[in-house]
Amino acid sequence: QSALTQPASVSGSPGQSITISCTGTSSDVGGYNYVSWYQQHPGKAPKLMIYDVSNRPSGVSNRFSGSKSGNTASLTISGLQAEDEADYYCSSYTSSSTVLFGGGTKLTVL
Amino acid sequence: EVQLLESGGGLVQPGGSLRLSCAASGFTFSSYAMTWVRQAPGKGLEWVSVIYSGGSSTYYADSVKGRFTISRDNSKNTLYLQMNSLRAEDTAVYYCAKCGYSSSGAGMDVWGQGTTVTVSS
User: Fold this and answer.
1) A44, A55, A99, A105: best mutation site toward chain B, by most B Cβ within 10 Å?
2) What is the pLDDT of residues A16-29, one digit of tens each?
3) Of A31, A101, B6, B43, which sits most exposed with the smallest number of CB within 10 A?
């Protein structure tokens, strides 16, 4: 059960767009449309931002979007705002009926 | 208001046991799978276990398999995690989370505030 692969850090200026990738295998990301993305601010619990690859829960800004191609899923944040600075984690359902998380990506808003 | 409240964390010696609880409110607890996720100090999220809505199906991360047991009492709207043979590497904040489905660990849409487990002599 190796973690999904995410970049350790990304950065962008206010108003810009950034994309965070999440790479797995055909046994997880590539095999199911059960990829989720979570935002976590320091000292806080994670918050669901995207589920089932590209769906946004009620209340999540439409600046957040998700997609998937093959074994790689992506989270795009458009119109970056200071409040978006946080850690972001992807997760995927797996063929073993377990869940894998990515290692996390620290987003810095310059 | 949909809410999850964990309890039961604390300091335990290596080899010891601890039982975490997670009290749910504001939603139909018996209709959803529930998970435990942990986060070691300064580290990322690690999925621990899932139990499906009826309680008969459970799955575990390899790191805890054989040592941890997840269970639920749908009559009490409560999720549990029995942790045995604890190791230093089990030290973490433990979160319970509600899944968006009855029989999948995907899409954790409600999270508790977390309870801290420290394994140390």
Assistant:
1) A99
2) 999 999 999 999 99
3) B43
